[in-house]
Design brief:
heterodimer, A: 123 residues, globular, B: 136 residues, mainly alpha, 6 helices
């Protein structure tokens, strides 16, 4: 499920935000992006809980977010620098965002295979 | 125990509600009382609500103190499942906040009216109503 919402987030960014020109496209993008990214946020603790023993869940969730926070720290200045380099154009930023999202989604597929093999059924 | 799912849902919906209300509130009171006081109003609002939460919430199980061992913090890195999830999350996080932070600026640059663009973030947060309820 995580793989699906993550791909949805990346595809929305590249497919809806990148060609968007007017409010008719921005408003659905905002709503759908909120839905997809909210799905990611609420699924992460469940995923970690699944691969951990009960007494490890707290520490592992904490460690996970401690590592991941650095990515949030890096991402936005990079995006701002891309906008500057494009002299205020936003296409580079949208492509950067969409590609990192899709890379993350693909990596989640790898994580799924490491955890449960190639089966499609619930693990 | 039976109502845990519902309680969790209400909590998650509450965080979405805050994301809807606060941006609208700030954009309306900012012209009246200035930037400094709008931030202070937000601060006091959170202080008041957190005071209620801190007084009323108590933990279901008594805390069990554990000895601090550095090995506990290294142990997750030996589990391939945790490592792959963390790498995926790392990549995903790098792109996750970019649209949230830039959609408003970008839509203004693309010619959207200021009035409508300031409601994009509330719309985005409204989309956050706990989709995990649907999919888990």
């Amino acid at each position: 499920m995580q793989c699906i919402v993550c791909y949805l987030t990346g595809i929305l960014t590249l497919g809806l935000w990148l060609p968007a020109t007017g409010s008719a496209a921005f408003i659905p993008f905002a709503a759908l992006y909120g839905f997809a990214s909210g799905g990611y946020i609420s699924l992460i603790p469940a995923q970690i809980a699944y691969v951990s023993k009960v007494e490890q869940i707290g520490l592992r969730t904490g460690m996970h977010f401690a590592v991941v926070a650095f990515a949030g720290l890096i991402g936005n200045p990079v995006a701002g620098a891309i906008v500057n380099r494009d002299h205020g154009g936003f296409n580079g930023l949208q492509i950067f965002s969409g590609v990192t999202l899709l890379a993350g989604a693909t990596s989640f597929v790898v994580a799924r295979i490491v955890t449960g093999g190639f089966t499609l059924k619930r693990i | 125990m039976k109502k845990r799912g519902a309680a969790y849902g209400i909590m998650a919906a509450g965080s979405g509600l805050g994301g809807v209300i606060l941006p609208i509130m700030v954009s309306h009171i900012m012209p009246k009382i200035g930037y400094g006081w709008s931030m202070r109003v937000c601060g006091f609002l959170i202080l008041g609500l957190m005071a209620i939460a801190n007084v009323t919430v108590k933990s279901r199980l008594p805390p069990r103190p554990r000895t601090f061992k550095i090995a506990h913090f290294i142990e997750p890195f030996t589990d391939m499942r945790w490592v792959t999830i963390t790498i995926s999350s790392f990549l995903f996080f790098m792109g996750l906040f970019i649209p949230i932070n830039f959609v408003e600026v970008q839509s203004l640059a693309a010619g959207m009216s200021v009035n409508l663009a300031s409601y994009l973030i509330p719309i985005l947060n409204a989309g956050r109503y706990d989709p995990s309820k649907l999919v888990l």
